[in-house]
Specification:
About 25% of the residues lie in helices and about 30% in strands. The chain is α+β, with helices and mostly antiparallel strands and about 160 residues long. A six-stranded antiparallel sheet has the order 1-2-3-6-5-4, with helices on both faces.
Length: about 160
């Protein structure tokens, strides 16, 4: 795979790639939520690369994009690697798109039928980024007390707690 380095925010390239996907391979797929559009949310530098969330009518995914070749671990398309964050380890799949180059993503939601509008989806994406980058022992006690107890709750389940 070709590593394309993004020295500035990759949000435009992310949106272009996923908009093209929506207009081609996802065209007329029944799981699309017509209330949603493609949007790159809050891309920021994280461990030398870009981390953000992409919201689409079919999924919401954490997305890693290389900012340099230093420290970037290529995995290949549809190959998995685990990435450690303050909140835990998450499995990311490698991808490659013409507009973006190599990237890695971790699905948070799919399908997106539970979201009534773009604002709800973007707010959920922003809350997920905060949760991802916050160690469990950094969560204020009040927030922990307000979390419903569910046996066997996954990390994705935790991220979904505040979802409407």
């Amino acid at each position: 795979m070709t590593v394309r380095v993004h020295t500035s925010t990759p949000e435009d390239a992310v949106e272009a790639a996923f908009f093209r996907i929506q207009q081609t391979s996802m065209l007329d797929v029944p799981i699309l939520n017509p209330a949603l559009s493609v949007q790159a949310v809050d891309f920021q530098r994280w461990q030398g690369h870009w981390l953000g969330i992409v919201v689409t009518p079919w999924c919401m995914s954490m997305t890693l994009v290389p900012a340099s070749t230093d420290g970037w671990i290529s995995v290949g398309v549809n190959k998995r690697r685990f990435v450690h964050f303050p909140s835990g380890d998450f499995a990311f799949l490698g991808g490659q798109e013409e507009e973006l180059g190599e990237y890695q993503s971790c699905s948070l939601f799919s399908p997106m039928d539970k979201f009534a509008n773009q604002t709800e989806a973007v707010q959920t994406a922003r809350a997920a980024m905060v949760g991802l980058l916050t160690a469990p022992d950094e969560v204020p006690a009040k927030v922990v007390q307000d979390i419903p107890t569910k046996k066997g709750m996954s990390r994705r389940g935790f991220f979904a707690l505040g979802k409407p």
